[in-house]
Queue: 2 jobs
Job 1
Amino acid sequence: MTPPVTPAELTDPITAQLDQLSAQLAQAGPQQAAQILLGVLDTETGILGRLAALVDTGARITRHHAHSGAFPGEMWLALGRTANTLHDLALDLDEHHEVFVQLAQRSSGAAPAPVAGQSGALVARGRHR
């Protein structure tokens, strides 16, 4: 029988691969960046979607443990808020899924064509912290 896998044996390689993926993204051209981001941002199968599901599972199990007194209730509430925020962010980014698909499928020699909904100027939006 195989010994059980420890959490560190699961998380350590994942974090190392995320570091490698981040480094590759930092050096990527537009098409490769879009391909990487497709795999990261997909709400169902991408890293962000799976991370949101993992944090949601953490919120549910923490809730269970908070009810038994093993964890403070604040932990459960914080994880629940985080899970909700990740889910909302994933939905916001999902609105741009087709743009990433178009960019990822563009041949590298093709001249950049305007992507639907894309303006000429970069517009910064979002919350400032």
Job 2
Amino acid sequence: MDFEFVPGPEQASELLAAVQEVSARGRHLHAFFGCMYYAAMRPAEVAGLKRSNCKLPAQGWGELVLSKSRPEVGSGWTDDGKSYEERGLKRRARKATRPVPIPPVLVAMLRAHLDEHGTAPDGRLFRAARGGRVRSTEYTEVWQAARVKALSAEEVETPLADVPYSLRHACVSLWIKAGVDPVEVARRAGHSPAVLWKFYAKLLRGHQDASNRMIDAALEARRDA
């Protein structure tokens, strides 16, 4: 992974703000992208998110209890002819859940989304313009318009935040840089620790070096005592 093109916190904030401004669909999908950046959710997980999965207090941190994923597949590969398939979480037992604490900024974003847009009949927070599952072509089109609005002309021509999934990478990178335990980062993101090391080895080595320095300092203090 080339972290040079993963958006930092300021760039991610500007991109999310631009999503709201590009169109009415952008306003509907603002919290969709927010879930990817603030909770490291995969697009298929966000597509399956229901009101019943959300704990959204008036103040402080909330929680998303993830249980379903709605990945896109060809209609010829599903039993009912739909263009998506409802599954359990990736790399988890079918009925497993993954609780993810979410910061107040995402709590506020989701509460505002529910106030303005409500839910689909089945309780899903996000739906396509004509109903049904939000398709990748739809949210990618909004994302590309937001990139043009938020980034410089030179940045638009680079791979910087070139796909919505960049927000998930940005979230995981932020957690690692903030000093969150890698095992907890992996749990929240729905990775195994081995997969986390595979893709984020450069950042984790820096995290490891910082931990080594703290251990050195503790050992030195004990010798001086």
